[in-house]
Structure prediction request, 548 residues.
Amino acid sequence: METETLLLNMGPVHPSTHGVLRFKLRMDGEIIRDCQIVVGYLHRGTEKFGEMKTYLQFIPYTDRLDYIAAMPNNYAYVKAVEELAGIEVPQRAEYIRVLVMELNRIVNHLVFMGSLLLDLGASTMIMYGFRERENALQLYESLCGARMTFNYIRPGGVREDLPDGFIPKLNEFIKDMEKRIVDYEELVNGNEIFLMRTKNIGVISAEEAINYGMTGPSMRGSGVDHDIRKLEPYSIYQDLDFRACMRREGDSYARYLVRVDEMRESLHILKQIVDTLPEGKTINQRYSFAPNTGAPSAVTSYFPRIFTPPEGEVYSRIEAPKGELGFFVASDGTTKPYRVKIRSPSFCNLVALPKMVVGLKIPDLIAAFGTIDIVLGDVDR
Amino acid sequence: MNPAEELKYLLPNSVVSVGVQTNKPLAVIRKEDFLKVAEKVKELGFDNLSVITGVDRVDRIEVIYNLFSYKKKQNLALKVILDHRSPEVDSVISIWKVADWLERETYDLVGVKFNGHPDLKRILLPEGWNGHPLRKDYDMNTEQFVTIGEDGEDIVSTDGSNLLRRK
Prediction:
């Protein structure tokens, strides 16, 4: 039977686009023949703000990129500034940083699981995911007063030390999560409908994934185990025991499984940090602007508000929950960055989506798109 | 020998100089030969194009490519220096597909033209936007408003008087 091609507009306001994203689809019956992605509806000019604010003032703006998991954003920017200026970080601060970032990875993957299952028509998982996420957010609240936009990591260390009772509560969270992950797997992994919706959907090979700039768990679903924490260990990752999770199939189901495995690995890292957390300062005292009264962490920030790194350029990247998050910072020796460029994982991972979905149906687009796991704040910046 | 020096050895006429970009080897490339060099770099195993950054240096425009090789676990940064009045360089979309969006973004925000890109249009800002925001001479004082036209297209104007705005 002959059919006409139909142009179908999906979004920018659509529950399955996780924000404001628009697909322009060319449909042949039910089959997607061409998919164009229109982004930019949430563009706030973060990079321009970077040029207008001082080094310290820009940190809260990074919180608003990937707002599901903001700690890695803080850290990626701060790491770039530290590399540029050659700032050393006390060991305890590095441990706390990795602790909060791995906790954020769990939070991110919980939201990922919840929203993916919700998109596919199962509403239980998001309730469970948000229940566990709430415990983690309360930990963050006790740590820095904010639940999602932290502004916690500073050049030279972290803003404050862990509050009293943080570690026992974290231990409780870890113990709870270990049982919960088993529950999730029982709920989701063998589910017939879920398997039909995700297996062999949105398949991409390893070479293509790399060529299309995919990184993070989305790429590791395609049979490569490239993880920046392993390739170029930063912070204290070289001292920690963990593996880069990987699946071979390259389909949506594989990308989902990688993230479940990653939650386990993150819990494993958290347990190691709890066991080996060293005592000491949480910020490099050389950059202290407040008089040192001897009281530990009495002042919220030891870092000077006016700070001039030497002239130079740096590109520094980390393994954020969604993939490679990099900051390019150019300094001209003044108090503000000359140029800040954000390489966001969501933006680059989206490039591969049209490649994955051509020839599939619209419900499959939802599954493939859901397992790439993007946040529009991170795409549009 | 780091990758930048290796590149200089292989293509002495195309590589202007080698240096460092804070602990990453950097090679400055002649803009006319950029596509040829990029092909060579891919052959050397640099399969991951991390990011393309355009920097407005007032008298010139620099475009910086950060690459990583998963096979060799090496970093390499390439830099081309372009004329400020008409910044143009060859597109590398045929080598790394991710360059599609990265180049469109650089075109959108910095105003670098990538020759050979099949669909070089704005990506984050609407078509019709005036100026490239990350240029240093971008006019920050003129407000621009975006409305939706009858066919769903974006209409940019500097007149916001007919929009609903809080007084």
